[in-house]
Design a protein that fits this description.
single chain, alpha/beta, 16 strands
């Protein structure tokens, strides 16, 4: 896949600012149950050998020899590859209405918040995140600091500011006398030429992918949630330009016409897709487009929005999309559309580090536990174009490993109880307790 710009940095001072539980480079991890995402099955009684940041081998426990290895015993826990959350917003964390606080925040605030929420996600077992929309290139700064070893956190794939038309889902909806250029410009444009410039501006400042808004959304005041907000020609200009630079493209899309034009324009993934019709599902199959459903985002507003003070107009829109979303999700799964795990973490009552509730929703509305885990491992890594390095526990891949209390094949809520996290061969959580400060 294409090289992420962030990967040109060489990690230095790998232990700066943190204490680690395990110090030896070579480790042997005993597993009584390990999820094999390549086959969507559970392997029993195996040992994972790591050397530095990579997995060296996975062997049956009866054949394991431990001389020279520090042993980590995860017997009785359920071991998975490090999880991928393919749709997060790091500079928000469950606020009832983020637009209320945004006018009083600075890029420094967003950067510090993004680092903290990235930590929360890693502690929940999510070793890789796809950050699809942020402000002021704060997420790119956090990503680069993690990659240089100056701070600890998950692997980040970032998109910069989401690209939108004037008045679209990513535009601000403040009084015309207020200026929010720090947040939106120059990601807001009209017509192919302006939107091509927005793509290139994001690429210039170091993004790994492109995100744009095809339709209205739940949390944008004044937009109709299902209405198309970009013409096909505008979407095509965005997609063609991104592909020319070797980038993948995600689109926020709820309404049917916006989804279908986005697929035809060449997007890599449809984010949400909650009001998709059967023609849209057929187009997803034809074009090989991935769905990132984010059921939790709408469900949390429907269930908790009134309680936490989310505006009534947003709750009404969440009810509208969620009434369609569960059926769409089930149909896409039945039709074997690629589905990658994503949560929209940061939206109202949708907290970083708590997003594993999405596994329960995915199983409630049609997936088996094995399918849901595959979405958060193998399929997620494929969407991120990083399957050569992450997404499964195999020799040669990064030693990104998580473990959970309970067996999700029998009780999917076990995925909310993360007990162990390793990223790149370093242990960040052990026995349910963080190893980092």
């Amino acid at each position: 896949g294409p090289l992420f710009l962030s990967e040109i940095y060489v990690p230095i001072h790998r232990n700066q600012g943190k204490e680690v539980c395990i110090t030896m480079a070579k480790k042997a991890i005993k597993c009584s149950k390990m999820f094999d995402s390549t086959t969507s099955t559970v392997r029993e009684n195996v040992v994972i050998f790591t050397d530095g940041e990579r997995i060296e081998a996975v062997v049956p426990a009866a054949e394991a020899k431990f001389d020279g290895y520090e042993v980590i015993d995860l017997t009785g826990q359920f071991v998975t590859p490090g999880l991928c959350d393919c749709h997060v917003h790091l500079s928000m964390n469950g606020e009832a209405n983020p637009a209320v606080t945004k006018p009083y925040e600075t890029i420094a605030d967003w950067t510090l918040k993004s680092l903290k929420t990235a930590h929360l996600d890693l502690m929940a077992g999510f070793t890789s995140l796809r950050v699809v929309g942020g402000n002021g290139f704060a997420d790119e700064a956090v990503r680069d600091a993690i990659n240089r070893g100056e701070h600890w956190g998950p692997r980040l794939m970032t998109s910069g500011a989401a690209i939108s038309t004037t008045g679209g889902h990513a535009d601000d909806h403040y009084s015309p006398y207020l200026n929010d250029e720090m947040n939106t410009a120059p990601a807001i444009g009209d017509g192919p030429d302006e939107l091509v410039k927005a793509v290139r501006y994001n690429i210039k400042h170091g993004v790994d992918m492109i995100k744009y808004m095809s339709t209205g959304g739940v949390m944008s005041l004044g937009t109709t949630v299902g209405a198309q907000q970009m013409s096909f020609e505008e979407m095509k200009a965005i997609c063609d330009t991104a592909k020319m630079y070797g980038m993948t493209i995600a689109t926020h899309a709820h309404g049917t016409s916006g989804i279908k034009d986005a697929i035809r324009a060449g997007v890599t993934s449809v984010e949400h897709g909650m009001m998709m019709d059967e023609e849209g599902i057929e187009l997803m199959k034809e074009y090989g487009t991935t769905l990132v459903p984010t059921l939790i985002a709408a469900e949390r507003i429907v269930v908790k929005g009134k309680e936490i003070g989310t505006p009534d107009w947003a709750i009404a829109k969440a009810n509208t999309v969620f009434s369609h979303a569960t059926g769409v999700f089930k149909r896409c799964n039945e039709e074997k559309i690629p589905i990658a795990f994503g949560t929209d973490s940061g939206t109202p009552f949708n907290f970083h580090g708590k997003q594993a509730y999405e596994f329960e929703l995915m199983c409630r509305y049609g997936m088996t536990p094995a399918e849901a885990l595959t979405a958060a491992t193998k399929t997620g890594s494929e969407l991120m174009r990083k399957s050569a390095d992450i997404g499964s526990i195999e020799a040669g891949k990064y030693a990104d490993i998580a473990a959970f209390d309970g067996d999700p094949m029998e009780d999917i809520t076990a995925m909310t109880r993360c007990t162990f996290v390793m990223k790149g061969g370093e242990v960040y959580k052990k026995d349910g307790q963080p190893c980092v400060k």
